[in-house]
Amino acid sequence: MAVAERFGTRWPPSRFFVAVLLVLLTDGGAAWKRAEGLSMGINYGQIADNLPSPARVSYLVRSMQVSKVKLYDADPYVLSAFVDTDVEFVVGIGNENVSAMVEPAAARAWVERHVQPYLPGTRITCITVGNEVLKGNDSALKASLLPAMQSVYQALTAVGLQGRVNVTTAHSLDIMGSTYPPSAGAFGPDAVPYLQPLLAFLSAARSPFLINCYPYFAYKADPGNVPLEYVLFQPDAAGVTDASTGLRYDNMLYAQVDSVYAAIQKLGHTDVDVKVSETGWPSRGDPDEAGATPEYARTYIGNLLQRIEMGQGTPMRPSAPVDVYVFALFNENLKPGPASERNYGLLYPDGTPVYDVGLRGYLPPMDYSQGTREGVRFFVFISLVAIVSITLSLS
């Protein structure tokens, strides 16, 4: 049966394929362009020497229908590769540059170089100033954090980008002095002097509080006493009930998020949203890293994605869907530390899944115009021209 007949048309094969070609080369029918993406975000780390080019990654991410990407820098090649797409970006200022950002001129220069040129083509919506700064022992760096955030915010204001681009920083859960029960959540005493004014800034700037949450760490530290079902979002998890609020938690991640909300409230704020800037599960680890298996990673991420798709909130904030950035897009072979650090990726560098959670993507074999719309159309054009030529030769 001819291809045109299978599709219920009497057109000659040549006209049929020309019609398909025209549809695919228009905006309305572009094969790669999605109407809406998943509300999940993904961390795109690049501590590796075997990753595909940003142009190819751009196509891959869009084909997976991921709607948000978080970087740890402001890689110009990545930002350029996502021009004219619907993908939102969080860009980062590395810890090594935080102290320099205290100077308004340096912050202004950074914004003018790394943010302003890419807007509005690339949808940069947030800047993270440092990552897990308050977890470390560098008191000078900690003292620089808020002034640096303020300088970056002032730089955005100077070019009219306040309100369009948020300014925040990402924290380790280690800043918490207590997380259980969630209603007793409180920041550690060493962190409070930094967090009190930082929260005032976030509130005034209407920026989110970012927290890196890894239930895996709790399980790894005490696998004999931390219920695996509870950390993996399993439906048969016994869960825990917060005696103070009567709220029941069927997974650890949501309990951790609510403990952060409780800690923020204890410092006088109910107007700052909490977002999970990192969470994930390693598919491989060293012999002493309990639970680092592809089976557990698939279960954790798969169940998490189901919660995200449901738009589910935490017990404390049931009407506010949890905003999550999964860690990470790729395995990163140059990351230091235990084996688990190099095995958090959903994908291998060749684009194949480390484990199957239902995310389907396509990594093109080569670059086409740096991953831009024209490049994708060129790829489609060449492919369909080849099909038309073969069809005409057979008709």
TrEMBL record:
Secretion signal, residue range per the UniProt entry: 1-31
Superkingdom of the source species: Eukaryota
GO biological process: carbohydrate metabolic process
Keywords annotated in UniProt: Glycosidase, Hydrolase, Signal
Reaction equation(s) it catalyzes: Hydrolysis of (1->3)-beta-D-glucosidic linkages in (1->3)-beta-D-glucans
GO MF assignments: glucan endo-1,3-beta-D-glucosidase activity
EC identifiers of the protein: 3.2.1.39
UniProt feature coiled coil, ranges: none
InterPro entries, per the entry: GH, Glyco_hydro_17, Glyco_hydro_17_plant
Keyword Hydrolase set for record: yes
Family, as annotated: Belongs to the glycosyl hydrolase 17 family.
Name of the protein: glucan endo-1,3-beta-D-glucosidase
